[in-house]
């Protein structure tokens, strides 16, 4: 489980095509400190398993399904990535509960700079708008953010200078894809309410 508080802006060192998967080597001296084979690290919001670590770098295998359902397939050597280690038991929950399981990819639609922050509009893929609410939480490329405006096919977020400086959201351009993970609580509530509705209509219990 993660919190959406990015620890480090890392870099893709190499991408190896394995046919039905890709092996990424990424530079991240902060997140690799103490990391070992089998540990988890979130890369742009996608939970990946560490294969090996060496000299501040780590490798991770990414299956075809993950490449298809996230923006990791667009990464190449030199790409910057948001990195976060799992939350330690008893640690502070600085953002919100993030699983590292991407629900879909959105697209940067607009960027509107302000004096002290920047408003970014993100186009939503089909099926996710119902989970996005004004003042609710959403994870964009692994960054825990608060929704400013929730539309039928988009949402907006307000980015402070720290987020712009220390995450990939400061360098993403209009048209670039971003990984989205909606609040897992919304999905559980939908599932429970759906089941309750079926039961009240005489469905099996």
UniProtKB/TrEMBL annotation:
Lumazine-binding repeats lie at residues 1-96, 97-193. Pathway: Cofactor biosynthesis; riboflavin biosynthesis; riboflavin from 2-hydroxy-3-oxobutyl phosphate and 5-amino-6-(D-ribitylamino)uracil: step 2/2. Keywords: Repeat, Riboflavin biosynthesis, Transferase. Pfam families: Lum_binding. It catalyses: 2 6,7-dimethyl-8-(1-D-ribityl)lumazine + H(+) = 5-amino-6-(D-ribitylamino)uracil + riboflavin. The keyword Repeat applies. InterPro entries: ATP_synth_asu-like_sf, Lumazine-bd, Lumazine-bd_dom, Riboflavin_synthase-like_b-brl. This is Riboflavin synthase. It comes from Streptomyces olivaceiscleroticus.
């Amino acid at each position: 489980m993660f919190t959406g508080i990015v620890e480090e802006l890392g870099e893709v060192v190499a991408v190896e095509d394995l046919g039905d998967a890709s092996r990424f080597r990424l530079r991240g001296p902060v997140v690799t400190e103490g990391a070992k084979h089998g540990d988890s690290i979130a890369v742009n919001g996608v939970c990946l398993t560490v294969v090996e670590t060496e000299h501040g770098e780590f490798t991770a295998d990414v299956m075809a399904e993950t490449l298809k359902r996230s923006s990791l397939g667009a990464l190449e050597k030199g790409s910057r990535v948001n990195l976060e280690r799992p939350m330690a038991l008893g640690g502070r929950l600085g953002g919100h509960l993030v699983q590292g399981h991407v629900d879909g990819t959105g697209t940067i639609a607009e960027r509107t700079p302000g004096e002290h922050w920047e408003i970014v509009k993100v186009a939503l893929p089909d099926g996710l708008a119902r989970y996005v609410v004004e003042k609710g939480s959403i994870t964009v490329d692994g960054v825990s953010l608060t929704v400013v405006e929730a539309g039928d096919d988009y949402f907006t977020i307000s980015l402070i200078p720290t987020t712009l400086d220390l995450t990939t959201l400061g360098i993403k351009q209009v048209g670039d894809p971003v990984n989205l993970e909606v609040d897992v609580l919304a999905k559980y509530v939908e599932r429970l309410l759906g089941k309750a509705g079926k039961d009240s209509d005489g469905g099996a219990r």
